[in-house]
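Field reference: sequence -> structure
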Amino acid sequence: MPSPLERIARDAMVAHGLEPDFPKAAKDQAAGLPAVDDGGRDLRALPWSSIDNDESRDLDQLEVCVEEHGQRRLLIAIADVDVLVPKGSPIDAHAAHNTTSVYTPAVIFPMIPATLSTDRTSLNPDEDRTAIVIDMTVEEGCTVPSSTVYRARVRNQAKLTYNGLAAWFEGAAAPRAFAEIPGLEAQIRLQREISEQLRDCREAEAVSDLRTETPNPAKRLIENFMIAANGATARFLRDRGFASIRRVVKSPERWARIVDLAAQHGGKLPASPDAVALQGFLKSRRAAEPDTFEDLSLGIIKLLGRGEYVAEAPDAPSLHFALATQSYMHSTAPNRRFPDLVTQRLLKAAFANSSAPYALPELRRLAEHCTRQEDAANKVERLTRKAAAALWLTPRIGETFDSIVTGAGPKGTWVRLVPTPVEGRLERGAQGLDVGDRVRVRLISTDPRRGFIDFVRA
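Structure field:
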């Protein structure tokens, strides 16, 4: 019997045009998949490890750093999902419709069946797997002079977690795997060193650095690696003349408000949108105001606007504003994002020197569809989180809370409680408030079914 929250989540999936269940043909395909042993190079002996959330079971990527002949290399292995989910198959059709896994507090709606995403196409510990490997040379002096992409067989030697590694980085006991696997501690130290070097190489830091959660140095490590891998993948396809789906954050419409927020925090930004200047300001504020940076970053990310997918010819640069980079795509999570699976198929065509499996007009249609479905998935996740929060807050109607304004416009004003990450509508007292302002609010009503949480200015 589904819980009330699960029923809300399933109803929201249907209401927003997403399929909560796999069709019979997809289930039959998942049940009858053959064994696969087609991995290209044999890299199983390298000390690969995964770093992810404590509860993660769909492991999309592994990492390893190699030092040889005075040279450092970073290798990122991406799960080969296409090998078991070919284009046009029933599972692919479902994935192409939803385009993303949907994560709610009540239930996860995976993009591909869990028998694949948590097993056959997951880079699980002590299992041989086929993968797409992004191989990057990292040199002193802040340069990544070369990179390539190829297929390989890999084996995850250790499943590590963000929380466990972050605690160790900050002085706590080492993860148990360090004692069990010779050389693993030295490998992670090298990974952290190279990750910091890659971060310093960028003109700007990742948009994910504008976070609404507690900063985590282990997550930063993986974010830096994924940004490098996605950039290398984009360059690989571009250099081989393949059109691809890029990930972009266009120039923000509310730049003037971002300038105002910067001024309130002692910074100065140019009148016209400038990604490098913005990220320079944010880096300085993180160092100068670590206790309040979370609130500032939340306001900035709301004003930047959402990312979207666009399909472009290989010679057309697409600025990812929040990364201050000209070439960026999603390629590192094919178990849970359809654009990443599409990219994987393009890479395989490039390996084989064959024609692209998607023409540019089809890629453009897919990019638009993926953006729409990602928006729909975000709405489902947001509604279900709000429903869970509304259930939790219902006994606290009448209490007052500290909050920060996260949205302000003709449709209303929204606030997020501090430090509890719960968002609701400010029904009265919004005059003069804008994104980033702090305000004291009082809870007046909740409606879990619709995810409504209503406040007034206290």
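Note: Residues 63 and 385 are 32 Å apart (CA to CA).
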